[in-house]
Every structure is written in C-alpha cells, then in structure tokens.
Amino acid sequence: MTETQPEKSKRPKPSRRRRALSWGIQIGLALVIFLAVRAWMARDMVEGPAPQFEAQLLDGTPVSLADYADEPMLLHFWATWCPICRLEEGEIVRLSQGHPVLTVAMQSGVKEEVLDHLNERERELAVINDPEGALAARYNVRGVPASFIINPDGEIVFRKQGYAPPLELRLRLWLARWL
C-alpha cells in the first residue's frame, strides 16, 4: 500500500481589484484611527475665543495676543526637555520668518535655562517663559508640543497636541485668514 500525499489546496490568487479594495479599506481604517487619536489628544485644549494674556518675552519685551491681531498667528507651547519639540524646533523657527509666531517654553526652568537651550541650539524665537505652567493651564495644555492657530478676530481655529508637520501649520495659517 502506498501512501498518497494530500493535495495542497490552492486558493485562487485575489484579483487586483480585490487587493486594491482591501488596501483601501485598511488605509481608510488607519486614517480613521489616526484622526480619532488626534482628536482625543486635543479634547481638553481650549477652543473658541483665545484666552487673553500679557507676558514678557525672554528679552523683557512685553507681549500680548492683541499685538498679533493683524493676521493669523501660531501660539506654540514647547519644552526644553521634550524630544518631539526638539525635532520640530527648526521648522517652527523657519515658520516664524514668514508668519507671526509666539512660543511658550512650558515648565522648562528659569529664564537663563531657556536662553541657554536656545543659544546652544542656535534658535531665535519670540519666547515666553512659563516655568510654573500658568499660561499653559489657561489653554488647558497638558502635554507638549501643543499648537494653536488664532485668527485675526482672536478665535482659535486650529489646535493640536503632538507633532505638527510644517506644511500643515502653513496651510492652516493660510486658511485662518478666512475662518
């Protein structure tokens, strides 16, 4: 008696159309999950009218949101100890060369420590030091980086916690003119 080998079952190869549909569904699902996580991360951040404040830049210059009422601006919270903030620092500096940008160093130590960080990394930005996180608390920022785009009417039209791609920030600043 000879043993017969069981035949390997051959499944038909999925058609290109079926594979494309499968890929589309997977990409769509990943996008939905990504957007849901992003919305969840920003859920507590302030929306609507931007909380007004008066503060001082690191060089002692007084600053307020009213100083930025002519065009859309980026209010960006960051920290010296944050690796993602370091990753996007250069892009925020480049963005500040063509758009109004005000940054807040959240819980990053005393003024000298923030200045040392900026000098070490050769960064020039308009920076408010927020060593206790009081300004961050007014905007309900619980993690950095966090970005707000505020239109000329003082309304927050975009908010995001986490890395913000520079192209997205530029596009949102441009769109904020009409929102």
| Percentage of β-strand residues | 15-25%
Which range best describes the helical content: under 10%, 10-25%, 25-40%, 40-55%, 55-70% or over 70%?
Answer: 25-40%
**Count of separate DSSP helical elements:** 5
Mean pLDDT rating: 89
How many strands, which pairing sense, and closed or not: the largest β-sheet?
6 strands, mixed
CATH architecture group name: 3-Layer(aba) Sandwich
Number of strands: 8
Uncertain spans: none
Specify the CATH homologous superfamily: Glutaredoxin
Q: Given the C-alpha coordinates, what overall shape results?
A: elongated
GO molecular function: antioxidant activity; oxidoreductase activity
Organism: Thioalkalivibrio versutus
Protein name: Alkyl hydroperoxide reductase
Keywords: Membrane, Transmembrane, Transmembrane helix
Structure notes:
- The chain is of the alpha/beta class and 179 residues long.
- The chain has helices at 16-41, 83-96, 111-120, 134-138, 166-175, and strands spanning 48-49, 54-56, 62-64, 73-78, 101-106, 127-130, 146-150, 155-161.
- It has five helices and eight strands.
- It starts with 15 loop residues before the first helix and ends with a helix.
- The strands form two sheets. It has a six-stranded mixed sheet with strand order 1-8-7-4-5-6.
- The protein is 36% helix and 20% strand.
- The chain has a single domain, classed as Glutaredoxin, CATH 3.40.30.10.
- The model has no long low-confidence stretch (mean pLDDT 89).
- α3 links the parallel β5 and β6 (127-130).
